[in-house]
Write a structure and sequence with these properties.
Blueprint (H helix, E strand, L loop, with lengths): L8 H9 L6 H35 L2 E8 L2 E4 L15 E8 L6 H6 L2 E7 L10 H20 L2 H4 L2 E2 L3 E7 L2 E8 L3 E3 L13 H15 L3 H5 L7 E2 L1 H20 L1 H19 L4 E3 L8 E4 L4 E3 L6 E3 L4 H8 L5 H14 L6 H11 L1 H12 L5 H22 L8
Parallel strand pairs: 5-12, 9-13
Antiparallel strand pairs: 1-2, 1-3, 3-4, 4-7, 6-7, 8-11, 10-13, 11-12
Helix pairs in contact: 6-11, 8-9, 8-12, 8-13, 9-12, 10-11, 10-12, 12-13, 13-14
The structure holds adenosine-5'-diphosphate and magnesium ion.
Length: 401
């Protein structure tokens, strides 16, 4: 499981380097060490799982499903949490009230809830930092953001209510959230086709903007240091990588234009002040509810950065599955940020060097996939990104100056 202790890189190398030179005794010793480690990991894993069951039991809940994106793992029969690998530093479990413990009202509504528990065990001094951040955002930030949204946007946006914080000493280790009924609007790389209309796109862009108005002190005062990302450094470091598909599919002329954008953005970024950015307002963390509203979940990642366009970049890049809505999102982001004279330049650079460039390269590499379905998906994606890059680099469409 993800939360078990990882071997230090050095430990593994040591094994490798000395292969062939080991005597019998040494090999037995290493084998014993390995077994001990597996045993230790199993013990630690069981402790976590028992702890989760204890948390739930104390609150008259029982686990129903483990949730991983749109993947639902049913915990029925002899399948319990022991058998589920998280693969993420969190365990997210759909829970229900134990029979006989519900009020009449609860019984009628068959209310389910979500238990989200941080399970990463290293580094120890950072344990529960992410879940602490998420709890702060739910308690202190999201209600204010909702209040500040324009009335017609409020109708389309909802945040789950936080039902409980579960503590270990003075640290929050898990949260229980209201379960939002609906379906996830995409996966990590793709937005579900047709899930959003123009109004949804506008609402999400407003939410991104409003989130960035958060005063960092508001979070830091609750005892949480937000990490800082230096976008200029990141863009500079990524120049070669991001140029790869451009060179291959668009030619050297466009690589020069990419270089021009990097050159231009240095000055622009250097005059920005840091804002609170979400990192994760996008399709994979949005639940489309049956009444049409979008519910926004997963708030563990906010950080400080000097590029207010970054969150839009993530949203827009995953919209390659619906090029028309992708264009709509670009227009909405530009419109909502008209007051910021640097925004257009920032969004350009974000799409080229940030998430847009990342996705372009990701699918460019998949053009060689042995899997036909992946290859076809990549061909579709690469064409959309090539066109997007061309528009940006030639100042066409929404990018006209
Ligand atoms: N409040 C909620 N209502 C309904 N489903 C939820 C809720 N919170 C989480 N989920 C489900 O659990 C999955 C993982 O939760 P999330 O908070 O996004 O964790 P992670 O950080 O692992 O992405 C989501 O993709 C979603 O399917
Ligand atoms: Mg998520």
């Amino acid at each position: 499981m993800q939360y078990m202790r990882k071997r230090e890189p050095g430990e593994i190398n040591l094994f490798k380097r000395r292969e062939g030179e080991k005597d019998q005794e040494e090999m037995v010793f290493e084998e014993e060490e390995k077994q001990e480690q597996i045993e230790r990991e199993r013990r630690e894993g069981k402790e976590y799982v028992r702890d989760i069951y204890d948390d739930l039991y104390e609150r008259d809940f029982f686990p129903v499903n483990v949730l991983q994106g749109s993947n639902v793992i049913e915990l029925i029969g002899d399948r319990d949490i022991y058998g589920v690998e998280s693969g993420r530093p969190f365990m997210v479990i759909e829970i229900a009230k134990t029979a006989g413990t519900m009020t009449e009202e609860e019984e009628e509504s068959d209310e389910r809830a979500i238990y989200k528990r941080e399970i990463r065990d290293k580094p120890y001094d950072n344990l529960y930092q992410s879940i602490k951040k998420e709890a702060i955002i739910y308690h202190r930030i999201l209600p204010k953001i909702y209040d500040n949204l324009p009335e017609d946007i409020k109708e389309r946006v909802v945040f789950p209510r936080i039902i409980d914080d579960i503590k270990e000493g003075d640290k929050t280790k898990a949260i229980i959230l209201e379960k939002m009924d609906g379906y996830i609007c995409g996966n990590h790389d793709t937005t579900k086709k047709g899930v959003w209309n123009e109004k949804d796109i506008e609402a999400i862009c407003f939410l991104i903007k409003e989130f960035q108005e958060t005063d960092p002190e508001e979070i830091q005062n609750s005892g949480f240091e937000l990490p800082y990302k230096d976008f200029l450094k990141s863009y500079q470091r990524r120049f070669n990588e991001r140029s790869e598909p451009v060179r291959a599919l668009m030619g050297e002329e466009y690589v020069s234009k990419v270089e021009g954008i990097l050159h231009n953005i240095e000055e622009v970024i250097s005059r920005q002040s840091p804002s609170v950015l979400s990192e994760d307002i996008f399709c994979f963390n949005t639940i489309k509810m049956s009444d049409g509203r979008n519910a926004f979940i997963d708030w563990e990642r906010p950080y400080l950065g000097n590029d207010v366009s970054a969150d839009y970049g993530k949203l827009i890049s995953r919209l390659w599955t619906d090029p028309e809505m992708q264009q709509e999102a670009i227009r909405a982001a530009l419109r909502i940020n008209q007051d910021n004279p640097d925004f257009k330049s920032l969004l350009r650079a974000s799409l080229i060097f940030g998430e847009g460039g990342h996705m372009f390269r990701h699918y460019f590499h998949r053009l060689n996939s042995e899997n036909l379905q992946k290859r076809e998906e990549a061909e579709e994606a690469v064409e959309v990104f090539r066109k997007l890059f061309e528009d940006i680099l030639d100042n066409k469409g929404a990018w006209e100056e």
